[in-house]
Amino acid sequence: MKIIKTHKDLEVYNLSFESAMEIFMVSKSFPKEEIYSLTDQVRRSSRSVSTNIAEGFRKRRYPKAFVSKLSDAEGEAAETQVWLDFALACKYITNETHQKLYEKYDWILGKIVNMINQPDKWKP
């Protein structure tokens, strides 16, 4: 089993960071009139997944704080999926891009929920 020393050792953190960067790159092509709405919101929510995972990991010695931050990450991941739905409905992304990113966030959500359900497993 791999020893996890920092949040950067977590597979879920790395996938959430990578996915947020994919969303950043894809959202560069969104129309300028979306800069303060959809573009900004999908970027913020996708980045918040990673930041909340990192914060939660640092608070893992306190199970309630750990679970709270992971719950925030879960909510941000679900929000990101909704923004991806809007981007698809507005035809800013292709079905293929939507499906790929949506499935990544399904996986991220599953990993986060597993961590929430087993907070004691993550204590330092």
Q: Beta-strand percentage? A: under 5%
How many helix segments?
4
Number of domains: 1
Question: What's the CATH topology name?
Answer: de novo design (two linked rop proteins)
The N- and C-terminal alpha carbons lie at a distance of 15 Å
Instruction: Give a short account of the largest sheet.
Output: none
Describe the structure.
The chain is mainly alpha-helical and 124 residues long. The protein has a single domain (7-122), classed as 23S rRNA-intervening sequence (de novo design (two linked rop proteins), Up-down Bundle), CATH 1.20.1440.60. It is built from four helices and no strands. Helix 1 (11-27) runs antiparallel to helix 2, helix 2 runs antiparallel to helix 3 (63-89) and helix 3 runs antiparallel to helix 4 (95-117). It starts with 10 loop residues before the first helix and ends in a 7-residue tail after the last helix.
